[in-house]
Structure formats: C-alpha cells, structure tokens
Amino acid sequence: MLPVAYCQRVKMFIAMEVLNNTRQLALKAVRWRTSTSPFSISRSWLSTVPQIEDRNILLMGPPGAGKTSVGRVVAHRLGVPVIDVDDHILEVTWKMPVADKLSEVGDEHFLEEEGRALCKFSTSGSVISLTGSNPLHSGAMQHLKRTGLVVYLDVATDDIIQRLSRMKVNRIVGQEAGVPIRQILHYRKQFYEKWLDTRVLCGTGDTVEEIAEKVLQAVERYQNSKSETFVSTRRENGSSSESKYFSDVVLEGLAPDGGLYVPQKGFPKLDVREWLRIAEMSYPERALAMLEKCIHPMDIPGTDLRRMVFRAYGVNFASEAIAPVKHLVHNQFVQELFHGPTASFKDLALQLMPQLFAYCLPQMCNYLILVATSGDTGSAVLSGFGNLHDLDRQRVGVLVFFPEEGVSEIQKRQLTAYKEGNARAVGVLSDFDFCQRAIKTMFGDSGLTGHLVVEYGTVLSTANSINWGRLLPQVVYHASAYLDLFKDGVIKFGEPIDVCIPTGNFGNAMAALYAKQMGIPIRKIICASNQNRIVSDFITTGVCDLRNQPLIASLSPAIDILKSSNLERFLYHTSGGDGCLVRDLFTRLEKDQYFKVSESLLQKIQEDVVAGWCSEEECLAAILNVHTKTGYAMDTHTAVAKAVADRLQDPWCPVVICSTAHHGKFAPTVLKALQCPNNPSDPVDQLRELASVASTPRMHQNMLQCLKENSRGEHTVCQADFSVLVEEVESMIQDSFLKVL
After folding, report:
1. 56 in Cβ contact with 149 (< 8 Å)
2. Of the four, 138, 268, 379, 392, which is 20 to 30 A from 180 by CA?
3. What pTM did the predictor assign?
4. Is 65 within 8 Å of 202 (Cβ atoms)?
5. What is the distance between the alpha carbons of residues 51 and 55, in angstroms, rounded to a whole number?
6. Following DSSP, what letter does each residue of 276-334 receive, concatenated?
7. What is the pLDDT of residues 468-508, one digit of tens each?
8. Count of CA atoms in the C-beta half-sphere (13 A) of 51
C-alpha cells in the first residue's frame, strides 16, 4: 500500500497540471475561435513592416471616406497592386460606367448586380478599395472576407456630407427621393460595423497620407497580437516569463506570483483629432472606440466587443448619458456615476466585465467568481453576472464576502437580494481587509485551487478591481467626463482638469491615471480619504504604515479600506515598471505591515497625485452646504471628495468630483446631515423621506424596487476564520455545479 504522503503529493501534482492546462486551454479556446472565424486572417502574412503575400487588404467605408485615395497610398507603400472595385471590377464586368448601370437597373437590382460581380472576382496580395454599398450584399462580403482583412475607414458623418457636397454628389445608392443623405449614411453604418475586422478612426482634417499610415498601423497591430501582452507588477526585471494575453488576465484575475496584471507596453495614446471624433459620440460609442484600442481583436473581435458594450450601457442605466457631468459650484463639476442598476459607480465596469469574462471562458470547466466588497462592488457583481445569458450563468458562480457590520443597511439589502441561481452573498464578522486578504490567500493556495479543479472542475477568479477586465472599463468614464466638459464649452481641448476621487482601494484613481496615459489632459488626481487615511498619508509622506492601525467604521464605508490593492499598479507605473521593487515593497507590507519609498519615487508619485482626508464632521457639513447652496444632495463618499477638493484643487483649474454612489444608498446619514427631524428606521421609508426633502438627483427607482422586494434581507453570516470561508467556497461550488466523479 502506498504511503499517504506520497498519494497526497501525486494528487497535488495532478491538480496543478490540470489547473495549468485549464488556463492554457482558456487562451487557446478564445484564440482558436477568433483565428478560425471567416472574418479573420492567418497570422503569417504580415511582418513587422506589413508585407502582403497571398492576402488582401480591403478598405471599407461610406462614399467619400477616401477609400480610393488611401488605397493608392497604402498599395504604393507596400509595393502591391491596388484595385478599385468601381473602376477595375464593376465597369470592366459591365462594360459601361457604374452610373449608367445604376440608371439601367435601378437601386434594388443594382446591389444584386454589384454583389454578383464581386462574387465572381478573385485576387490575392492586393489592396482593394470597396464601394460604399458593397457591405450591403452579404454574399459578396463573405466571399471577400475569406481573402483578407477588412479595414473600416470610420469617418464622421458631417465630414462625409461635406466631402460629397464638394464632389457635387447629391444622391447615393439606395437613397430614395426626399430621404436625407444623413439618414442613408446612418442606416449603412450597421453594415460597416458588421463586416469590419479592424477600425481606423479618422479625425477631421486627417490627410490621405495620415489615414494611410493609420491603416498600415492597424494592419500591423491586427497581425502582431504578441505586442499587446500583460505582465505581473511583481515580475523580475528583465524576466522572460510567459506572456499573458487579455483573455488570460481576465480569467486569472491575480497573477501567480501575487502581483496584479498590467499592460507590458502601457496604454495606447490617441491623438487630438481622434479625441475630437470621440467627443461627438454617445457614451457606448466612446467606450467602444477606446476599448478597441486596448483589447486586441485576436482576443475579442470588434463586432463582438460592440455587441457587449451596447448591451452593457443601454436601458439598464437610468440616464441616457450613462455618466453625465453636471455643474456643482464655481469651477467644480460632479460626474454622476450612479445611474446603473445598483446605484454605484461599480456598475460602469460590472455591466461589461462579466460579458468579457464569459466570452473568454473555455467550454471545459466552471468558474467561481470570488469577491470581497466594502459595500458597492458585491451587488454590482451580482447584478452584472446575473444578466449573463443562461448558458454562461450555468458555468459561472458568484460568491461575495462582505463585512457584516461594515456596510449600510440599504447596501446589505441590495447584496442579499440575490438568492437564486449561482449567486450568493455571505456576511463576515470582520472588516473588508480581512475579506480581501482571505480571497487573495485562496488564490495563492495551490493546494486549494488544485483541489477545486480536480474535484469539481472549477477554477477560481475574481471581479474586484485587481482584475484587469474590471479596471479597464473605468478608464472610459474619466475620459468621457473631460470630453463632456470640452463639448459643453467649459474648456478647450488640451486645457487641463483635476479629478477628485473618494478612494480606498485606488482602482478608480488608477483608471484616471490610465485615461491620462491615453491622452486626456488630467493635471492632478486628487485622492480623498476618510479617517481611514492610509492612502492619503502614503501619497503625502511616502510611508505606508498599517501597524497599530485599526479600521474605523465611518459614514463612507465603501472606502473603509487599509490595504489598497491597486496601489501596487500605481507604484509599478511610477517606478518605471520596476517589478522587483514592487515585489519587495508589498512583501514587506505583508510581513511587517510597513514600507517606505525613496524621496525620488515620492516626487514622481506627487507629480500625478495629491491626497487629503476629511473628518466625519466635515463630510456631514459638505452635504449640508452643497444642498443649501444648490439643492443638490450628495452621498457621503462624494461629500468626502468635495471636502478634500475644496482644500486641494487649483482655483484656476476645473475639477471633476466623482460621485460614486447615489445619496439614497446612505439615506439615514444624508437625512442627518440635512438636519431632517424625521429619520425613519425602515429603509424604504427613509428613501421616501429623502425624496421629499432632496429632489436632485432624482430617486433611484431600481434601488427602491430592490428594497421593497427584499424587505427581510436574510443571509448567511460566518466567523472571521479563513477555514470557514473556504468551507463557504466549497459549499457554493457543490450547490452550483455538478461534482466530477
């Protein structure tokens, strides 16, 4: 009989092999799905400087987009033939000008004739300029896409109309009498979005040569996905460790060495004319334009990403603007990030992140999402993953741990409203830091993670802001706030703003820094803390000291955090990517509860970020003062940011205050701050009373409905014991997924 210890080692080895293979299969599954799509191309046909072998580059866009002119320049740069569909295919096939053919057969039959001619055409190694109407014929586009890469020249509609006017074109194919050309262009856009492989965002004033250069860069990027990899913040300097792709890091959440994933080459930087284009877009369009720059199409193709983005930011938000910016007082503005389903800024990320996660999910295993929440993240995660399609929900479970006494009663009702399906919230008799530390320990326990894979076919992941797929969507709303101020005439593009953020885990602040990297002129990020001011003290002194620092329950519980996870990403950024330094600092913090950075590094930190904190009295006073002056009601976290912004902002620089939660989530405190004599004990009555004294912003109807439906808020509460939390994890898996026999 074999020794027990030997059997345990063998089982552990098998578990780790299964876990590693599962992660590898996740990447392969996603990339196989993308690379074998009829809308994709082989990865062998372009080198660093694009060189066509047997594939085509197909330029697509509306009439007047410049496809013919750009095609000539691109073909010349590559030294390959250029084919204009009008001149070299249609007129040769029909033996007459295109205009004459259109007059002869009429619009409806013209599209069919055009598609038939294209289906008979075959070539390779060329640049092909399509007509504006080619994408309306499905058969022709399927035929063409099999031969190469479709590049969409995305030109603003106003620019197209002006160009067509200069060209004396007053009618295009499919435009009936009395129908404005703008309406036809809008109708056609859906077909361009359907068939694209990659987009070139063309700014007003871009020259033909500049657009051609963008086309070449887009083609090179499409081919070279290895240039967009991710590394751990704790990677050894110069290490040649295995590259991770977007689909890897979304599923893994935390790096195996305990670090957080960051893009190896930083964020893409957009030029001014691209930003001016994006400024004219709706919020979902802005999100798509930015995320396409950050997510390689080999991980998520543009057509699929568009579907996810528009599903994430739609009727589920109470405001059509999604994240509107409103004037508060003087040169202070408030960005309302609470119009999502759970009345928190977390919805801006967590209505999209679950879709990204499910898309990257391999078919052969289940995933359990573990989340620690200080109040808002949990309900947003439960809402986001709860909205997945049925098949995805069957393979993804969500388990949320929250401090039982560390959230508001309304937040607790929201968390415990999710009782059906693969979703559960568990109260813990401790603080947020314990919950977060326990989850990170589970991820680092290879015995536990391997056991769950072998026994249940289940892999652990996370949806906290340590997960890159959770943090990335937050970059969008910081950029959107600046673009709104520009569009409203508050600033000229290029003029700086400050952003003030109530922060505990530093994820929101890190997203603002990434927006700055992408080219948004943010001067300073102002980090606002409550009396749990570890982040504020660190940014001011360079010392992170958790020794003898008990967590103090506050009026702004979502930022009652001592150990800030995303501070690790910030230090990696400011240290120039020094993974060894970051690893040493956070190893020291774990061991000694203390670290101090050098003076030179502190100076770099303070180039981007300043910080302050406010007392409970100052928080309440800020709520009352703003409401008295403007009639606007802030929640406690926004009030913390307002109080700190008043002290730290440059009076000549506009500041955007991030309003991270609807004031109704903290109704008793807001009623107290507004000195209301009636403060009911029932949360529903509290909201009604609050609505009667503070009408701006309007009451959040989703939140009110949730409280009405979950009047009791029954849920599991467990002791602050790591082994007990592990038991909850295993119990959740057993209840959610079939056990592997």
Report:
1. yes
2. 138
3. 0.90
4. yes
5. 10
6. HHHHTS-HHHHHHHHHHHHS-TTTS-HHHHHHHHHHHSSTTSSSTTSS-EEEEETTEEE
7. 999 999 999 999 999 999 999 999 999 999 999 999 999 99
8. 5
User: 20 and 251 in contact (C-beta within 8 Å)?
Assistant: no
Percentage of the chain beyond pLDDT 70 is 91
Is 555 in contact with 530 (CB distance < 8 Å)? yes
SS3 610: strand
Cβ neighbours of residue 313 closer than 8 Å, sequence gap 6 or more = 283, 284, 287, 322, 351, 352
In 3-state terms, what secondary structure has residue 700?
coil
Is the preceding peptide bond at 297 cis, omega within 30 degrees of 0? Answer: no
Look at the block and give the residue holding tokens 């109708």.
187
Q: Which stretch of DSSP H or E encloses residue 436?
A: helix 432-444
pLDDT at 432: 87
Tens digit of pLDDT for each residue in 585-610? 999 999 999 999 999 999 999 999 99
Buried b (16+ CB within 10 A) or exposed e, 391-426: ebbebbbbbbbbbbebbbbbbbbbbbbbeebbbbbb
State the pLDDT at residue 524.
97
- For residues 493 and 272, the answer to whether their CB atoms sit within 8 Å is yes
Question: If you average pLDDT over residues 353-359, what whole number do you get?
Answer: 95
Query: H-type helices in 457-598, by residue range?
Result: 468-487, 507-517, 534-541, 567-574, 579-592
Identify which has the larger pLDDT, 168 or 186: 186
DSSP per-residue codes, 210-273 = HHHHHHHHHHHHHH-GGGS-EEETTPPTT--PPPB-HHHHHHH-B-TTS-BEEETT------HH
Please report the pLDDT score of residue 714 as a whole number.
82
Size of the chain in residues: 741
pLDDT band at 43 (very low <50, low <70, confident <90, very high): very low
From the DSSP assignment, how many helices (H) and strands (E) are in the chain?
Answer: 31, 20
HSE-CB for 472 with a 13 A CA cutoff: 27
Distances (CA, A) of 152 to 70, 141, 452: 12, 13, 45
User: Poorest-confidence range of 87-96, 104-113, 186-195?
Assistant: 104-113
On whether the CB atoms of residues 359 and 300 are closer than 8 A, the answer is yes
The Cα 143–Cα 121 span in angstroms is 9
